[in-house]
TrEMBL record:
The keyword Coiled coil does not apply. Keywords: Hydrolase, Membrane, Transmembrane, Transmembrane helix. Coiled coil: none annotated. One of its GO terms (molecular function) is phosphatase activity. This is Stage II sporulation protein E (SpoIIE). It comes from the Bacteria. The chain crosses the membrane at residues 20-46, 53-73, 85-104. It comes from Pedococcus cremeus. Residues 132-345 form the PPM-type phosphatase domain.
Length: 352
């Protein structure tokens, strides 16, 4: 509460002022031979790291005044030592002001780019409805770095004449090239999921698109799912981690989606596999950033032990709690982007 009521400039002054006061006291009581000649400007350098340009300039001016006044209590006013101290304080304070100016300009540029990135991410990964047909849906996207909110992870859900279809994938690489390829995969899925009756044909269509636009070392892993009304779900796994089945009140386990297949862009996709998916059970589709997260000892995140979290509360609450557990496990340090889709088959009484 006190921090909210205190002006920002006053909070910014606290640390550099403390540093300057400490240097002055040391110089006053111990003499000029103990303190480094340019030490008064340390306060301005400290301010330049996080304070505004005006605050840094104010601290720098105070440092120069203290350097000038030191000639009085050290009895060396006008000497070479005093002149060197004064000029060093002046030059270092000016440098601190320049550093603060450059830092703030870059922070503003980064802030604008972050906003643009967020808008691009929202356009790439649109918000999913809470339910599609008889399937409840929740999704999350987490960037490995706070400043870079756009990556190559992707997801989409489409309600087609052939059933509810989902894609969750991960494009190799980072940056704009990965984003462009992810956008291409999503656009192709939105088109192909309505054109082809077979999920395998959808995967083949995506593979052809990725092959035609990607570079020689580019590819995308993907998991395609098609939910049916007879409590079954069909998968085509293109080099992606299998989904996690979370039955109510039972241990979570990986679903068998068939033998490992090549990612999109590296060869024809594998065959479709159909498995049973009982009512009230949940399915977690995820990118490898989730299971490759490590703790401080290098141990991978134990996803199969998170069944209680994933089965409790609403779908959105379950994903939020999972990410909270993951953040604590990794000490808030993520090395890769993460995309999650949690699906639940509703009971027939609630499906309408």
């Amino acid at each position: 509460m006190v921090a909210r009521l205190t002006p920002a400039w006053l909070r910014q002054l606290l640390l550099p002022t403390t540093v300057l006061l400490l240097v002055v006291l040391l110089d006053f009581f111990l003499g000029p031979g103990v303190v480094i000649t340019g030490s008064f400007a340390m306060a301005a350098v400290v301010a330049s790291v996080y304070a505004s340009v005006r605050v840094t300039a104010g601290v720098g001016a105070a440092a120069v005044l203290c350097a000038a006044a030191s000639g009085w209590w050290n009895n060396n006013l006008g000497s070479v030592e005093w002149s060197v101290r004064l000029w060093l304080a002046l030059l270092l304070s000016a440098l601190a002001v320049l550093i603060a100016h450059i830092r703030i300009r870059r922070e503003r540029d980064l802030s604008r780019m972050t906003v643009i990135a967020e808008v691009a991410q929202q356009a790439l990964l649109r918000a999913l409805p809470h339910s599609v047909g008889s399937i409840g849906i929740a999704a999350r996207y987490v960037s490995a770095t706070e400043a870079a909110r756009v990556g190559g992870d992707l997801y989409e859900v489409s309600e087609t004449p052939f059933g509810v279809r989902v894609i969750l994938g991960d494009v190799r690489g980072k940056g704009l090239d990965a984003v462009q390829l992810a956008a291409t995969v999503l656009a192709s899925f939105r088109r192909a999921s309505f054109l082809h009756e077979s999920l395998g044909a959808v995967a083949a269509d995506l593979d052809a698109v990725v092959t035609s636009v990607a570079g020689p070392e580019d590819f995308a892993t993907a998991l395609l799912a098609e939910f049916h009304d007879d409590e079954t779900v069909t998968f085509v796994n293109c080099g992606h981690p299998p989904p996690l089945l979370v039955p109510a009140g039972e241990p979570a386990s990986d679903l068998d989606t068939g033998p490992p297949q090549l990612p999109l862009g590296l060869g024809p996709p594998g065959s479709a596999v159909t498995v049973t998916w009982p009512a009230r059970a949940r399915l977690l589709l995820f990118t490898d950033g989730l299971v490759e997260t490590r703790d401080l000892n290098g141990v991978f995140f134990p996803l199969s032990d998170q069944g209680a979290i994933l089965s409790a509360g609403s779908l959105d609450e379950a994903l939020d709690n999972l990410l909270l557990r993951l953040s604590g496990y990794a000490a808030q340090r993520l090395d890769d982007d993460i995309a999650l889709v949690l699906a639940e088959r509703k009971a027939e009484s609630n499906a309408a």
